[in-house]
Amino acid sequence: MEDNLSNGLKYYRKKRYINKELVSNYGLQEVAFFKKDSLSYDFVFKLSENSVADTIGKYGFGLVYFTSDGSVGPEGYRISMMKSEMKMVGDYKYIIENVTPPANYLDSIHIFITGREGYTGVIGNMAILRNIQLK
């Protein structure tokens, strides 16, 4: 994983482009999915060049997984909340989170920021990725 991070995910194939500014100084360029073990993944969010660690540290980071196969229960979704920090690898800025998604195929993932100490509503813009095949 480290080699892929140091070259900005340039040659890594299991990734999706986002290109969305959530708020000023907090933009997501792409996300890569690295399998850790049988259940968990590292979701690596490559940040835009103008992203600032202080801005990222002010917000909570949320993922909402949607599936239509019943794997997340009758609601059809599951939420993960994190207190993310910006990490530098070479010249690139990342948020790296270990997550256990509810299924290997996700209808969509909604990415948002909220209050650092708990959900206070979506702040700024939300990014939505559809048809995610993790395996």
Would you write up a description of this structure?
This protein has 135 residues and is mainly β. It is built from two helices and nine strands, in the order αβββαββββββ. The chain has helices at residues 2-6, 53-56, and strands at residues 15-23, 26-35, 41-47, 59-66, 77-82, 87-89, 92-99, 105-115, 123-133. The strands form two sheets. It has a five-stranded antiparallel sheet with strand order 1-2-3-7-6. Strand 8 (105-115) and strand 9 (123-133) form a beta hairpin. The chain is globular. The two termini are 16 Å apart.
Radius of gyration: 14 Å
The mean pLDDT is: 93
Which structural class best describes the helix and strand composition?
Answer: mainly beta
**Strands ordered across the widest β-sheet:** 1-2-3-7-6
Question: How many β strands by DSSP?
Answer: 9
Counted by DSSP, the helix tally is: 2
SSE run = HEEEHEEEEEE
- Principal-axis shape equals globular
Unreliable stretches covering 5 or more consecutive residues: none
